[in-house]
């Protein structure tokens, strides 16, 4: 059965506010298909995020929200014996996920740094996620544990967190410190890797799955890694211009205005016909002049034609006359 996976921030909501039409669109999809949500956020609980979505009038269960913390804990439980000790660098929710998965969470302390470094104590794995109070002791414990042979894992590799005034360090920035000090790269469970999406789709018994997101480097890349169809919405980070500037293998399958139009974009866009450096989709026509798109007709159909033409020509294209975003 066709299923739908959605990123949250920039797709369903921005901050606390609903993306216009998100609740209605999700209810319409849920009436016909399984839906679920996937987020790299490893500090906030899935219950809290599900409640946020329910505030938009969408009837979902907590279990329909898959976080990178849940994905990490579940994945570790599949490769480590029950009761294995896992050092937690991150939130109380991350520790709770590990415990629920049948593993023993170990919390960093100043004394534990020396005990791990001297190998008087050992842990089987390190699971690194973000929390507001992650500091030097947490990182030193992780470094000592990984250096002593613990499996090194990270919930997500996000280097930066966007705020209204600029950026703050994301989990990936702290993960890099452990990498630099140990020379070991972590196994990552969140986007852009496929693990979290695969677990979410399996939990909801999806087969043909569409991943919907606003960021190509995380959402779309993860969908492609998981072998899913991908849809980029224009209510967040990326745009028509940034998508077409990428190699065709990295471009989304579909670009649409918002979550409110994603079903129609995936299911109802007319077939595209490519001929040389020209493509036609419905009433829209695009052609290339000096690698720059020139279009006529509705923006949604013209964008579909441009994506198909980029794939047909096997090269990135300058979006030219296409708008960065459209309604």
From TrEMBL:
It is an enzyme of class 3 (hydrolase). Its EC number is 3.-.-.-. Gene3D superfamilies: HAD superfamily/HAD-like. Keywords: Hydrolase. GO terms for cellular component: cytoplasm. InterPro entries: HAD-like_sf (IPR036412), HAD-SF_hydro_IA (IPR006439), HAD-SF_hydro_IIA (IPR006357), HAD_sf (IPR023214). Pfam families: Hydrolase_6, Hydrolase_like. One of its GO terms (molecular function) is phosphatase activity. This is Putative hydrolase YutF.
């Amino acid at each position: 059965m066709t299923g739908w996976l959605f990123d949250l921030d920039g797709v369903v909501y921005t901050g606390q506010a609903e993306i216009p039409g998100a609740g209605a669109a999700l209810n319409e999809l849920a009436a016909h298909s399984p839906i679920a949500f996937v987020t790299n956020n490893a500090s906030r609980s899935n219950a809290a995020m599900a409640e946020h979505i329910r505030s938009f009038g969408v009837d979902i269960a907590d279990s329909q929200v898959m976080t990178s913390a849940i994905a990490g804990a579940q994945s570790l439980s599949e490769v480590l014996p029950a009761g294995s000790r896992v050092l937690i660098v991150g939130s109380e929710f991350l520790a709770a996920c590990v415990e629920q998965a049948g593993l023993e969470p170990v919390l960093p302390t100043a004394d534990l740094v020396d005990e791990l470094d001297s190998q008087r104590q050992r842990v089987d794995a390190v699971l690194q996620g973000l929390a507001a109070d992650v500091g030097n002791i947490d990182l030193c414990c992780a470094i000592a544990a990984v250096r002593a042979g613990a499996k090194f894992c990270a919930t997500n590799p996000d280097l930066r967190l966007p705020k209204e005034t600029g950026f703050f360090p994301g989990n990936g920035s702290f993960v890099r410190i452990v990498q630099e000090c140990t020379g070991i790269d972590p196994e990552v469970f969140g986007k852009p890797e496929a693990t979290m999406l695969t677990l979410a789709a399996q939990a909801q018994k999806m087969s043909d799955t569409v991943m919907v997101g606003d960021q190509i480097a995380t959402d779309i890349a993860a969908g492609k890694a998981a072998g899913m169809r991908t849809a980029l919405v224009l209510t967040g980070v990326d745009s028509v211009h940034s998508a077409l500037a990428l190699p065709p293998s990295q471009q989304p399958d579909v670009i649409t205005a918002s979550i409110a139009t994603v079903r129609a974009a995936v299911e109802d866009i007319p077939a595209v016909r490519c001929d040389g450096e020209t493509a036609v989709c419905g009433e829209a026509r695009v052609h290339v002049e000096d690698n720059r798109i020139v279009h006529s007709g509705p923006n949604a159909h013209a964008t579909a034609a441009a994506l198909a033409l980029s794939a047909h020509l096997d090269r990135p294209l300058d979006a030219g006359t296409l708008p960065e975003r459209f309604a």
